[in-house]
Design brief:
The strands form 2 sheets. The protein has a 7-stranded mixed β-sheet with strand order 4-3-2-5-6-11-7. It is built from 11 helices and 11 strands. With 294 residues, the chain is of the alpha/beta class. Helix 1 crosses helix 9, helix 2 packs across helix 3 and helix 7 packs antiparallel against helix 11. The structure holds S-adenosylmethionine.
Amino acid sequence: MASSLESMYSDVEYYFKTFELYKQRVTTVFDEQWKAEWESIIKGLSERKVVKDKDDIRMLTVATGQGDSEKIIIEILVKLFPNSKLKVDVVEPAKIQLDKFKGTAREMTTEHPNLTFQWFEDTFEGYMSKRQNNSYETKFHLLMCVHGMYYFDDWTFAVDQFYDLVLPGGVMTNTIGSGDSELGKLFIKYREWEGNPMNLVISNDVTSYMKAKGLSYQMYVRKCLYDITGVFEEKSAEGNVVLNVLVGRRDFRMNAPQDLLTKVLDFVMENSLEEKGGRYMTCDDVNIVLVKPA
Ligand SMILES: C[S@@+](CC[C@H](N)C(=O)[O-])C[C@H]1O[C@@H](n2cnc3c(N)ncnc32)[C@H](O)[C@@H]1O
């Protein structure tokens, strides 16, 4: 039966505190691999001659948060295309995050005068309607969205629009949690149990949708582990935040029907690993990369 538990994103301030804790508890040993993959994705732009020496490069990035991933990708672009002007459109609805990103951007533009940003404090949906209203028709060589899909009104709309926003030969990238990791498997189970897929989209949904549309893509998997220690302790404030992240719902232990809570905790017990006094679940990322036919 469908229930109406609250989204974690219903209170943005609460959401970002939760997200910070999540980031502190996630580990990956593949950062160097991830950077190397991004370098090869970006090199493809010159190898396919989509961007030639001194050409301007246009990038769109959506749901950036404070722009941690973008900083790394922009540094790669600047290194690989030292003679190009790089123009970046940034779309992020949370002001506090966008302001942090603007701070980082100021340092970057001082160091790299060829780099400029255009800021859109807006949802992706809002950005798209503003584009339409203002006849803003710019398209992009590189589009990036890292863990944004969960909160869009309609992620299928986003996939369609992302594709449309990329120039021929350009690259659309979308990073999202893997449906094959333990956390992703919980998302799949949970949305059946609650009867509500809100905020629980996974990589497999996106790739199935793209396949059905005949779109070719490549997947780059980044192995990650989520430290869920404390999740079974009813009175642990941090453990309860961990639990909220596992199901994408606010105050889950307090508000969930007992049978739903039991199903989730049983699943987590069976699908996590105890090690060195802690407990861990896999929560891999998948970067879904599409090169638009020229
Ligand atoms: C999981 S965070 C990811 C942030 C960042 N990309 C990262 O990986 O650290 C999701 C981001 O999506 C943003 N967001 C929520 N709803 C959105 C929407 N409709 N359109 C665009 N971004 C949205 C949130 O404000 C938040 O910054």
